[in-house]
Known about the structure:
By secondary structure, this protein is mainly alpha-helical. 75% of the residues lie in helices and 0% in strands. It has helices spanning 3-19, 30-55, 68-73, 78-100, 108-136, 143-151, 155-159, 170-190, 195-216, 227-246, 255-271, 276-294, 299-303, 306-313, 315-336, 342-373, 381-398. 34% of the residues are buried.
Amino acid sequence: MPYSNKAMYNFIQNLPSRLQRNTSGGNYYPLIDGMRWLAIFPVLMQHLAERLIKYTDQPFSTPIDQDPFAFFISRGTIGVFIFFAISGFILGMPFAKAHLEGGKKVNLGKFYLRRLTRLEPPYLIWMSVFGLVLAIKGFGEGLLGHWLASMTYTHNMIYGYYSPLNPVAWSLEVEIQFYLIAPFLAAFFFSISNTLKRRLSMVAGIIFWTVLVHQMGWQYFPYKPSLLAQLPHFLTGFLLLDFFLNKDFKIKNSLIWDVLAIAAYFIMAYTWTEELGKSLVFAIALFSFFFGIQNSRFIGKWISSPWIAAFGGMCYTIYLTHLPLMELFTPYLATIIPGTGFEIRLVGMALVMLPIVLSFSVLAYLFIEKPFMKIRPEELRIVTFFKKSFQPAFIQIKK
């Protein structure tokens, strides 16, 4: 084999291990990264379908509003709610282990600083790049205000609609809101020592807040893109974490859990709505989807495979960059992909666009996002500076 071909082969073969995330706790769960891929994929397909409909100049053989496949693809936002549940699961873990397993007490300063050093740099970089692009394209007045609001995760609150810099950033604002209160919510629930009472309290919290959302009208704008409306999804992640850590009620390698997970996904797709009853069913389906995959015979193994887990692990970069990339390429692709059926044209778009998105995301992840995963917050110079500056004062106060 020629040297260049061998080098390329080795690069591709080792790529999954190079893409594997660096976790703050040192524990890596490929299943969770696989879940992240299951969350990002429907989002990609929904946004690709929206671009196809937006930029196509040919009528479809079946009108979009009458096409059941088009409706199913349009439900890709459920991937965002899966992300919310995963965040509840991951962020609650160190607090749950501290309370339920007698693990190390969580240092809140390090917890928040880790979130800051891990998530902020890629976000600030990409949102600034997109803002610069809009400025060059002549976005108009008010761009600076949109940029500042986006930088501070307050765009939804200030403007009441998605950021023009990158509309998908609405969910990242919700995530930040959850990060701020996650330690206190986790401490509240996981400090309940009785397993049954703890789980019942979580279930009660999910039901209560879902009902409250609909009573207060928070499922509508401007509250929809906020933690007020989305909190039940994060609490579902807490409940899933409780079952995961306690290792009870687990029937491994049973096909019934694969069937449950698949059925739950379709139920989520058709119960994502602003109606109270369906929202409660959605919460059950979200739990069942995650729980089914954890105990599945086939799905769990598939999404834990190196390539799927690797792409899932870089979902943050994919999420931040995919929509601007689609806006760049799909106006041209939509006019050249042949066929009149929505399904055929969407598949054709996906075969071209998804490799572009994933290839770009691999490079952006390796050179922009992953380096910040390796940073240990306590080793930052600014942290050392503040420690050295204020520690003597604290010592004197103690004396």
